[in-house]
Amino acid sequence: MFFNSGFALDGRHLAECDRDGAMVVIDGYHGFMARPTDLSSIADRVFYIAGGYKYAMAGEGACFMHCPPGWGLRPRDTGWYAAFGNLTNAQSGQVGYSQDGWRFMGATFDPSGLYRFNAVMRWLADEGITPAIIHAHAKALQQHFLRRISGSALFANASPVVPADEVRRGNFLTFQTPAAQAIHNDLKELRVVTDVRGERLRLGFGIYQTEEEVDDLVQRIDEAGALESLPVGTSSAA
C-alpha cells in the first residue's frame, strides 16, 4: 500500500521481484487491519512488517515482522534478545542467533503496547469486525465523500491519484493539486486534519467515522472554498 497514493499492490506484482534470490520485504503499515491481507501463498519467501499504530488502533510500541524460514540468518544489526534461542549452545566466537524470527529481536522494551494490541484484537474479534468489514466501511465513506465533493470550488483543480472506480485502494484518498498546501492550511483553520506531501493532499476514512461526519467535512470544505473565493481584503463577515 503506497502512502503517497493509496494504491494497493497485489500478489501478482511480486513475480517481478522474485528473481536472482532477491529478498522481498512488504511494508504493511497502510494495509494491516485496513484491507484483507492473505500472504499464505508467498509466506515462504517474503518478509512482512506492520504494527499496532494507525488502523489497528493500538497506538505506539507494538510491531511485528513475519520472517520466511531460512532467510537472513546473520542479521547485520540486531539486539541482544536475538541470541536468546541460542544461549544454551556452546559459543564459538561468533554471536549465536536464534534460527527463527527471534534472530531479529531488539533489546529490552516496554510491553504495554503489546497488551493494548492484544486487547484491540480481542475486542474486534468479539464484535465480529474483520479487515474486510473495516475496508468496506471506509470505501463507502470515500464514495459518499466523492459524490458530495463533486463541484466543490476548493477541489476544482484537484484530481484523485487513484481513480474512484479502482478497487485496489487503501482507506484514504489522495488528491493531486498545486494547491495542496493551501487547502491543507484552509481546512486546518476549520479544524479539519489532513496530510499534505508536496502537491498531494490525503484524507483518511476509518471505522470510527460516519456518513454524517463526512457530510460535516464537506460543509467545512464548502466554507473554506467560499472564503477562498472572496476578493482580497474582503471579510467573510461583510
Describe the structure.
With 238 residues, this protein is α+β, with helices and mostly antiparallel strands. The chain folds into 2 domains: 11-127, 3-Layer(aba) Sandwich (Aspartate Aminotransferase, domain 2); 131-229, Aspartate Aminotransferase, domain 1 (Alpha-Beta Complex), CATH 3.90.1150.10. It has 4 helices and 7 strands. The strands form 2 sheets. Strands 4-5-7-6 form a 4-stranded antiparallel β-sheet, covered by helices on one side. A 3-stranded mixed β-sheet has the order 1-2-3, with no helix packed on it. Helix 2 packs parallel to helix 4. It is elongated.
* Biggest β-sheet strands, sense, barrel: 4 strands, antiparallel
| Biggest sheet, spatial arrangement of strands | 4-5-7-6
**CATH level-4 homologous superfamily of the largest domain:** Type I PLP-dependent aspartate aminotransferase-like (Major domain)
CATH class of the largest domain: Alpha Beta
Structural class: alpha+beta
How far the N terminus sits from the C terminus, by CA atoms, comes to: 46 Å
**Domain module count:** 2
Average pLDDT figure: 86
Q: What is the chain-wise order of helices and strands? A: EEEHHEEHEEH
* Bulk shape: elongated
% residues in beta strands:
5-15%
What is the alpha-carbon Rg in Å? 23 Å
What is the third-level CATH name, the topology of the largest domain? Aspartate Aminotransferase, domain 2
| Total DSSP helices | 4
Helix content: 25-40%
Low-confidence stretches: 232-238
Number of strands: 7
Q: Using the 3D structure, state the CATH architecture of the largest domain.
A: 3-Layer(aba) Sandwich
